[in-house]
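User: structure tokens for this one?
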Amino acid sequence: MIRKLERADREDYLSMATEFYASDVVLAPVPRQHMERTFEEMMRSDLYALGYALEHEGEMVGYALLAKTFSQEAGGMVLWVEELYVREHARGCGLGREFFAFLEELSKEQVARVRLEVEEENEKAVALYKEMGFEWLEYKQMVKNYPVVTLT
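Assistant:
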């Protein structure tokens, strides 16, 4: 089952986000403070960030974090799958496929593109994403980080 994250999910979300950023599928860990701020933003509004709980047999075993943006290139709204995480004991239960079916419904008539990042070495994820219709977008990205500010 997939549902929006609720305030009561805070500790489960933070625990799983910590696990995700300690895994070998990400480039570097992020401070817990960033995770806490993201959760608060999801609770405040769905203008920029959306969070979903992935449940299996009544237990929250994963989460998805989506970010919204507008893209002239895509011709409309873009949903970024910022994070999709399922705890190891629940992998292989079809939650990834269920999430992408849910995302497909969520995106109908409102979204021009769904975008995600994946490390090529994460072969299982790459295979799933290709099966779900994703294609490689050959961009090299650059970033410039600034000190964290409080959003109001």
